[in-house]
C-alpha cells in the first residue's frame, strides 16, 4: 500500500457505527517520522472539525493491526508498532457522527522522540485538510463504480494497483473499470501470478470488474489503415482477456476519420466478426458516445442499426456523461479558446435525449472535471443527467471518470466528492 504525502489522508474518512448507532468518526494519518515507531511513542492527536468538534490529544482512539487502543493503552503497550507503510487509524468519539458533506479537519499530532532533548519534546506536526465524508445514502436506482483512468497520472507514480482499488472501495463503490493497456501488467499476456493477485485484490476489497477499456488502433502502421480482419483480431484478443479478468463489458475505442468522431469504416465488419465470440463469452461490446458526438448523430444511429439488424444482445452503447457538459472547462496555462477543441466548452446535450436510446445503453462512464468545496460540479448538471438515465430505464453502474487537474492525489478527493454528489442527487429523484 502507498500513502499520500499529507499527514491527513484522503481515504478512510467516515462515520463509525456500533450496531445501529453512530458513535463517532474516523480518519487516517501518515507517520511523520522517517521510520516506523513503537506506538507507545505517540503522545496523542488533537482534532478539530470546523465548529463541530474540538478535542484534546488524549481523547481520540488509535487502531493498529485491527485492534483499537486508548492513548493510555498505547503508552503501556509492548510490540505495537506504527509502520511507515501503514496509516494510523484515528477514531474520535462523537455521538451521532458528522453530517454528510465536506469538512475541514485540523490535527495536531504529537510524537515522542527519545533522541531529541526533553525541552524540545514532544515533536508536533500540524495539518489541515478538506475531506468529503463517505456517503451513507443508497444512491437511488444506480450502482456505483470507478474507472482507474480517474487516477492517471497518479497510477504508477504515487498509486499502485492495490492502493487504487482500496480508494475505490473506500467511497462505497462496488465496481471497478480498467484500461487493458493501462493497468494490466505485461499486457496482453499477464502472468498467472498477476491474474491471481488481481482476483485476490477484488475479493479483499469486495469489488467486481465492470468495464474493460480497449483500443482498435486503425492507424497502427504508417501509410496504411488496419483491415477489418485485423480490427476483429484486436477486438477478439481483448474480449478474451477481459473475460479472463472477470469483466462483463468491453469498450473498444475505435480509430476515427473525422472531428466529430465518426469511426473508421472497418468498425462494422470488425464488430460483426466478433459478435459470436462476445455471445460465447457473454461479454457486451459497447463503444462510447463521447463529446463532441451528441446522442442525435449518425454514429449513434449506425450503432443502433447494427443492434437491430443482427438482433444481438452483446453490443450496446456506452454513454460518457461529458456529452452533457454545459459550462467550459477552465483554460490551461498557455491555452486560448481559439487553440483548443471547441467541445471543451461543452456541447450541452439535452439529457432528455437518453429516453429515446434507453434500451440500448449498456454502461455509463460518469465523466467529470471539477467539483468545488460546496459539492457543486462546475461542468456537469447531475440532476437532469441522472433523471434522464432513470427515465431511460437505466439502473446499472455510474463509473466515475475523473478528467480534471492532475495534481498528485487530487483525484482521490474529487472521486469522493462526485460519489457524495451523485448519491445525494440520485436518492432525491
The major pleated sheet works out as: 9 strands, parallel
| Structural class by helix and strand composition | alpha/beta
Gyration radius, to the nearest Å? Answer: 24 Å
Low-confidence stretches: none
- Alpha-carbon distance between the termini? 38 Å
Q: What is the helix content?
A: 10-25%
Give, in spatial order, the strands making up the sheet with the most strands. Answer: 16-15-14-13-12-20-19-18-17
Mean pLDDT: 96
Number of strands: 20
The percentage of residues in β strands lies in 25-35%
User: Count of helices?
Assistant: 10
Shape: elongated
- The helix/strand order is EEEEEEEHEEEEEHEHHEHEHHEEHEEHEH
Q: What structural keywords apply?
A:
single chain, nine-stranded parallel sheet, alpha/beta, 429 residues, five-stranded antiparallel sheet
Characterization of this structure:
The protein is α/β, with parallel strands linked by helices and 429 residues long. It has helices spanning 71-75, 161-170, 180-183, 192-204, 228-244, 266-272, 275-281, 298-310, 382-391, 410-427; strands at residues 14-18, 21-29, 37-38, 42-49, 53-55, 61-64, 67-69, 81-82, 88-93, 102-111, 123-132, 143-147, 175-179, 208-216, 249-254, 284-285, 288-289, 317-320, 361-368, 397-402. The strands form four sheets. The chain has a nine-stranded parallel beta sheet with strand order 16-15-14-13-12-20-19-18-17. Strands 1-2-9-6-7 form a five-stranded antiparallel beta sheet. Strand 6 and strand 7 form a beta hairpin. The longest helix is centred in the last third of the chain and has 18 residues, at 410-427. The mean pLDDT is 96.
